[in-house]
Design a protein that fits this description.
282 residues; globular; 2 domains; 39% helix; 3-stranded antiparallel beta sheet; Pantoate--beta-alanine Ligase, Chain: A,domain 2; single chain; Rossmann fold; alpha/beta; 6-stranded parallel beta sheet
Length: 282
């Protein structure tokens, strides 16, 4: 595995691969890697000639400074996992490399996506996501990019970034299904911060999503959302939201016609750790 910390060096290398007509796949991450990330790398390697992974804990997408400071950083373990998974290239830049002083920040037109669900609870988060992904796409210039469905709203934001940035129109985006622990808990770097007791409770989020999937029927949805929220609260979660939304636009749905594709989304704190998950339910 080749490791690059400087933009110039990785671009020189990838330009040579382009000249060989090799297809470049890209998996952006913030490190603290787990099997979910490796499933993205596996999908990348299956369809691309060169698999590039980035590790960069992006400060601009954290609206809580404490959350940024506590975000797990496990670079040695990450590199071992990537080598074992036959990653071709790791891009591991410093913050000054991604955000040089004086660089003008673009404001991204995310329409309602910016203010729904995660956007409502984490102001500025998706602007920060777009900022770093824009920068990384411009550096790597991939043919195909790979993101996990666990971050459902983020996937929709990245789709919009690609659609509204002319230089990215040729990029194909692959969304890889959420990887779960045997108990159903969605794999996440934040799980490292859960205590052993909290790890026993955390799968309640997935169980609640399954409840929503089983309980949904045409008509008003307020009751089942309230029931789901109560289930989480009784287990000790502090719930940010339990939402049911249009699977394509993410607009909240309170009255269902029995036909429209839906996704259920949950965000809740367990102790000091904020967990998110989602499930296509209809």
């Amino acid at each position: 595995m080749k490791v690059f910390k400087k933009i110039r060096d990785i671009q020189d290398y990838l330009q040579r691969q382009e000249e060989k007509k090799l297809n470049i796949g890209f998996v952006p991450t913030m490190g603290a890697l787990h099997q979910g990330h490796l499933s993205l790398l596996e999908a990348c390697k299956a369809s691309c000639d060169i698999a590039v992974v980035s590790i960069f804990v992006n400060p601009t997408q954290f609206n809580d400074k404490n959350d940024l400071e506590k975000y797990p950083r496990t670079i040695e373990k990450d590199m071992t996992l990537l080598i074992g998974a036959d990653c071709d290239v790791l891009f591991y830049p410093e913050a000054e490399e991604i955000y040089p002083p004086g660089e003008i920040t673009r404001i991204y037109d995310l329409q309602s996506l910016e203010n729904l669900f995660e956007g409502a609870y984490r102001p500025g988060h998706f602007q920060g996501v777009c900022q770093v992904v824009d920068r990384l796409f411009s550096i790597v210039q991939p043919h195909t990019v790979f993101f996990g469905q666990k971050d459902y709203q983020q996937c929709m934001v990245i789709k919009r970034l690609i659609a509204t940035t002319p230089s990215f129109h040729s990029i194909e985006m692959t969304i890889v299904p959420t990887m779960r622990e045997p108990d159903g808990l969605a794999m996440s770097s934040r799980n490292m911060r859960l205590s052993e007791e909290e790890k026993q409770v955390a799968p309640t989020i997935y169980q609640t999503l399954l409840f929503l999937k089983d309980a949904i029927e045409a008509g008003a949805l307020t009751h089942i959302k309230k029931t789901a929220t109560l289930r989480l609260s009784e287990k000790g979660f502090t719930v940010d939201y339990v939402g049911i939304a249009d699977a394509y636009t993410l607009e909240p749905v309170d009255e269902w016609d029995g036909q429209k594709p839906l996704v259920a989304l949950i965000a809740a704190f367990l102790g000091q750790v904020r967990l998110i998950d989602n499930l296509v339910i209809a």
